[in-house]
Amino acid sequence: MEHPSTQNRTSPLLSEWVRRLYSHRKLHPSSAFANVQVMTHSLARSLVLAGASGLFLSLSFPNSDLGLLAWVALVPLQWALDGKTKTQAFWIGWLSGTIAFTGMMTWVVTAMNTYGKVPLVISYGLMLLLTAYLGLYVGLYSAGAVWFRTLIPRYGFFVFPCFWVTLELTRTYALSGLPWGLLGYSQYRQIEIIQIADHLGVYGVSFLIVMVNVAIAEFFSWLMPLFRGFRPARLPWELAAMAALLVALSWEYGLASLSETPFSDIPRSSISVGVVQPNVDQAVKWDTSYREETLARFDRLTEQLGLGTDLVVWPEAATPFVFEREPVYQLQLIAIANRAHAPILFGSPAVRFYPDRRPYLLNSAYLLSPDGQVLGRYDKQHLVPFGEYIPLKSSVLFFLDKLVEGIGDFEAGPGPAILTLTPKPRSAATGMTGTAPRSINFGVAICYEVIFPNLVRQFAANGAEFLVTVTNDAWFGASSAASQHFSMVVFRAVENHLAFARSANTGISGFIDPFGRILEATPTFTEHAVKATIQVWRPRTFYSRYGDVFAYGCAILCAILFLLGMFRSKGSEPDAIAATPV
Hints:
This protein is an alpha/beta fold. It has 18 helices and 12 strands.
């Protein structure tokens, strides 16, 4: 027989549990089958809500491009976590994240099947492995949200955005990094709200979106009991007020930044840049019989830019040969640059040798002057795993080959290199008289590199006055990948307040101003030669100087809270009352 004190302590708990079952579910206390029905209904409800969040997240990004949907996309997931244990929350979040990334990254199948010759069924299987991995981060967020809410019952909600940012930062670097589809990227068209990225990076925009989602979810959770006819919990006014305040401050900061008043004392000039989009079919790109046709296409499109251009930009791996090893084709490129009266920045592989004389390749961008001098070269630092190289190939993954076809395995370049060019005198370019132009520094990000905020930041920190990115998105076919890739360039421009010129083999090519406004964006799978005058300056934003201090601050805060939670006396998992759905 239990001790009387134990009975007194547990009776109110049982009474409350029975009361909730009666009032919320109208169940008979002796009905085991009814309890099973409640659990089944709760599971089905959670799965539907998780699926809705996954769908909404994927629709927030290109090609659907419903960016405003991101501000409520996580609300169903927050509701699905209500009353769940950490383990249950993890599985619910994992499902939601996997659905989101699967909807966002179906282009992976095109790259592997069409160009990597991987069978379609296996391509879908590998894509699901990738999206399931990315979905793990949403699962961890969901489990962490339940844990933080238990650790800090009323104010744990404020930690949710910090934890989301911590996981995005982790994903940027873990396993060589894949920061594709960070939540903040969904807002690349909301220019006013994303100006905070010049201090906080894309992670700051993600933080704001999660904060608003959590506030909306909690407000409606508080509101819904009013319609059910029983007394709701306390209004989470602190959370709602904080979310509203942060949105208002971000909006006001964005409007002030776009007025350019804070930057009025920074010297600035401009430069005329032309980008070429040749639309060379990937299937014949490296076929030697198409070399002359490819060069003729580049020549024709470059000529369309006219003589007033200070810099011509061709895409990644534009030359269908190794530039340094083909003297005959070198002369053809020099002739094109000479006719354009402008240096040409173009992509081409470079061959180098290990100490034992074994050759290896670099994915490089060359700056070629009209008189045939190579003014500089940048070698890609961050390679695409399983596309340009196989991680751990010499030991663990020796049996694998690259998932896409190319001309060989690559090695990473030594680091960020700043290239320098001297624009035409204004009298020659525009017919106006003026002083002799000064030399201008710029940085080049090759393809995949532009999705890494800190990597691009290093060019700005080293003195770049504008930025160029060259890419070949032909691998992805007519999918959403090109639009998603292009949207990330908007954030690199805002973070550093530097203009971007982008040349892509099959598109999207174009220009973005220092505040993220898209000046030109070509359609995909068409030939284009477009020119724009872009701003040149050195604003040196907070982000350019200090990088991801905000994201690391979020990570440190979460780590401190985690350690405090570990040192606290361990409580049991949420009890029957907490786990009962409401």
